[in-house]
Amino acid sequence: MANSIRVRIGIGSVVPMVLLAFVLATGCAPYRFGNAALFPPGIQTVHVPIIRDATFRHDLGLQLTEALIREIELRTPYKVTADPFADTTLKCEVIGETKRVLTETDSDYPRALDAAIQVRASWTDRAGRLLLNNSIVPTDDLTILFSQDERFVPEAGQSVDMAMQKAIEDLAGRIVSQMETRW
């Protein structure tokens, strides 16, 4: 006969081991994985209305709306919806755009220019609570001001439209970054 060792484990000793393994695996608080851990929980949808444009370049609002929707869909766990009764609403307004000469040639032709865009943004939930937090300058205002500029050189074939598009894409990235939860 072969020697065999039989180990008898009762149900009373298995349950505590399973509970201990579960607690060690999950921790004391729920843990979120991936980019969902960077954003406030409990939000599934974001409504981004067409951005109002108070400048003479009326296409900036539409371009920023498209860039924001792309960034939110790409970088956040949220779904952008046309429903105004979504979990949250991200409202923005283009309040200014400028173009200024940085350097000139000897004959006073612009060599390098700077195109800038200024935007006011507000992200609120259904109850009207502000979700965007400006930790640098706390104010009573429900909006945060964003500004982005981009340098361009016409001699190199660059245009103000190209510079504004790049500034809008960078600005959309900065606004979506402000949607992240503060540590």
- CATH overall fold name: Double Stranded RNA Binding Domain
Order of helices and strands: HEEHEEEEH
Instruction: Average the pLDDT over all residues and give the rounded result.
Output: 83
Number of domains: 1
Topology summary:
Layout: H1 11-26, E1 45-47, E2 52-53, H2 60-75, E3 79-81, E4 88-104, E5 110-125, E6 144-152, H3 160-177
In a few lines, what is going on in this structure?
With 183 residues, the chain is α/β, with parallel strands linked by helices. It has helices spanning 11-26, 60-75, 160-177, and strands spanning 45-47, 52-53, 79-81, 88-104, 110-125, 144-152. Strands 1, 2, 3, 4, 5 and 6 form a 6-stranded mixed beta sheet that branches.
Which keywords apply here?
183 residues, alpha/beta, 6-stranded mixed β-sheet, 3 helices, elongated
Care to describe what's here?
The chain has 183 residues and is an alpha/beta fold. It starts with 10 loop residues before the first helix and ends in a 6-residue tail after the last helix. Helix 2 (60-75) crosses helix 3 (160-177). Strand 4 (88-104) and strand 5 (110-125) form a beta hairpin. It is 27% helix and 27% strand. Strands 1, 2, 3, 4, 5 and 6 form a 6-stranded mixed beta sheet that branches.
